[in-house]
Task: inverse folding
């Protein structure tokens, strides 16, 4: 039986399934008396202290198993436990709703988790798992229940679970856990990130895998294709044994590409950058060979709180990343909220169509005090590295001019106060609305660069919600119309001696790389783990070959034809050995 999910970590293993099921936690939902409020708050504080010590212990274990960079995943957990806003929200629920500490904690954790789960951005969705992991830990300490964890194993297994937290994953004994598969989760979850570091296959988002497989069943986990084969026959096992051997050989070859420059065989150089959402993500990006950061999503500083982050909080976050990157570029996207990312403390009204409504730069221009605070923090941090500013959701030149006017005000204010900043800081916009791509030749005269956000550009161009299963088949990032908008943006920037990057998911797709390279894209920014493979594609072809592929793609009528063209050409050149899929 075949189950299709999402690839979380590459690799192939054959072995016995082990169903990991955690016990449900019962919480008394009855209201408490006013006299019990202080006692419940004290219990909450004590549970947070115990949780803090436990997380530090888990971090030490992670440090030994997966190194300093990945251990910093648990720094985010410490931040949640220490977050006064998180504590304040739980205490408010205890006081105002007369809930027990456990019920109040569950309420707040679920609210945070639901907020993140509804977001369109996969990275931001998966950050909700960190909130749930910490909330579960504190809840268990409140109720005197032992922490989650995989039972002691004595034989090699492939873990099957509804979900796995980072704490679960770091408790794995690599001698026995050869891979894992879950009902939910995505590629950017911390469990998946740890799996990639441990170099064990992981398949996520399988929906009902826990009810379809039993402990002891022989299964094949194919982390490359995101597949699980249950009860395979001898022929299929033999086939996958060969695939497993070939995969290990390929990985040895692939690792050497990460730290090499992205230069084509005839000398064309491009930048390969990483998309990040928090300071702790930068270490992993550098390990994979990032030339810089092409997209720093700043929303994570604003989400999951009951107030705006202060200017200093933002400043230190930006400064930390800039210092770690040194001279490498860091593109910071200004606040991109609204749509799927809501901030309760802003009091935004509900909209019929939030993705086309009051969001991103529109909110920033309407609430300049928020915008100015963020711009000031970015400018102050700019003396510590090679920082650039990027405005999201730009629909036309008037918004760019207004945003730049606000930036000019902030710069002057800093000068008046004697605060140093990079006077030559570069400013760019995201090309994610068709109107911006069409008028790119006008907009580029007001900025220093473009970065194409293909996720939204594709949705807006094709009028398709990629999260809607009934129409998601229409989400085609290499659709001829999208390709022409990309081409127009690149050519407009080059006409004025400026550059265009791409920070949408398309930038990390091997089958798209040759087309985008041939169109003249200057910078590709992606999930860190995609960097070595993309560099391999670029270093395995000439720029002229890429231009030929791009020219052929532009002459085609459908998304499918373009994918097949790229696959055939790359296979002919020996770059890939499969048709792949977008």
Result:
């Amino acid at each position: 039986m075949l189950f299709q999910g999402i690839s979380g970590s590459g690799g192939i293993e054959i072995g016995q399934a082990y169903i990991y099921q955690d016990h449900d936690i019962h919480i008394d939902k009855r209201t408490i008396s006013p006299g019990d409020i202080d006692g419940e708050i004290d219990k909450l504080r004590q549970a947070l202290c115990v949780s803090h010590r436990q997380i530090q212990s888990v971090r030490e274990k992670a440090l030994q198993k997966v190194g300093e960079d990945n251990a910093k995943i648990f720094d985010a957990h410490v931040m949640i436990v220490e977050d006064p806003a998180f504590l304040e929200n739980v205490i408010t629920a205890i006081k105002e709703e007369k809930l027990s500490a456990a019920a109040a904690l569950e309420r707040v954790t679920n609210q945070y988790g639901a907020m993140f789960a509804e977001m369109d951005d996969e990275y931001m969705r998966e950050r909700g798992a960190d909130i749930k992991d910490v909330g579960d830990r504190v809840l268990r300490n409140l109720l005197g229940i032992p922490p989650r964890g995989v039972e002691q194993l004595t034989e090699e297994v492939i873990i099957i679970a509804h979900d796995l937290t980072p704490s679960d994953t770091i408790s794995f004994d690599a001698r026995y856990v050869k891979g894992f598969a879950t009902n939910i989760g995505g590629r950017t979850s911390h469990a998946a990130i740890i799996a990639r570091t441990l170099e064990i296959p992981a398949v996520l988002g399988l929906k009902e895998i826990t009810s379809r497989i039993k402990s002891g069943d022989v299964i094949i986990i194919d982390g490359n294709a995101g597949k699980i084969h249950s009860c395979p026959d001898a022929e299929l096992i033999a086939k996958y044994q060969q695939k497993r051997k070939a995969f290990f050989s390929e990985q040895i070859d692939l690792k050497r590409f990460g730290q090499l420059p992205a230069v084509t065989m005839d000398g064309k150089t491009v930048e390969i950058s990483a998309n990040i959402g928090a300071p702790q993500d930068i270490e992993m990006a550098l390990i994979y060979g990032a030339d810089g950061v092409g997209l720093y999503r700043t929303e994570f500083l604003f989400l999951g709180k009951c107030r705006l982050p202060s200017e200093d909080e933002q400043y230190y976050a930006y400064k930390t990343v800039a210092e770690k990157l040194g001279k490498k570029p860091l593109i910071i996207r200004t606040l991109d909220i609204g749509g799927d990312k809501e901030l309760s403390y802003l009091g935004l009204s509900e909209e019929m169509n939030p993705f086309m409504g009051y969001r991103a730069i529109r909110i920033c221009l309407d609430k300049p005090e928020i915008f100015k605070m963020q711009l000031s923090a970015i400018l102050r941090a700019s003396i510590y590295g090679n920082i650039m500013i990027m405005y999201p959701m730009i629909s036309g030149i008037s918004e760019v001019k207004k945003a730049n006017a606000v930036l000019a005000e902030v710069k002057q204010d800093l000068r008046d106060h004697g605060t140093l900043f990079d006077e030559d800081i570069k400013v760019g916009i995201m090309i994610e609305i068709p109107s911006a791509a069409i008028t790119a030749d006008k907009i580029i005269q007001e900025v220093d660069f473009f970065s194409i956000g293909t996720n939204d550009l594709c949705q807006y161009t094709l009028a398709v919600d990629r999260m809607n299963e009934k129409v998601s088949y229409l989400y085609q990032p290499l659709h001829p119309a999208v390709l022409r908008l990309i081409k127009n943006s690149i050519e407009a920037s080059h006409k004025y001696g400026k550059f265009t990057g791409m920070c949408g998911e398309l930038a990390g797709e091997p089958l798209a790389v040759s087309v985008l390279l041939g169109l003249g894209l200057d910078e590709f920014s992606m999930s860190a783990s995609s960097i070595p493979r993309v560099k391999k594609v670029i270093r395995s072809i000439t720029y002229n070959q890429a231009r030929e592929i791009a020219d052929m793609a532009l002459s085609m009528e459908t998304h499918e034809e373009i994918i097949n063209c790229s696959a055939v050409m790359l296979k002919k050149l020996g770059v890939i050995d499969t048709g792949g899929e977008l």
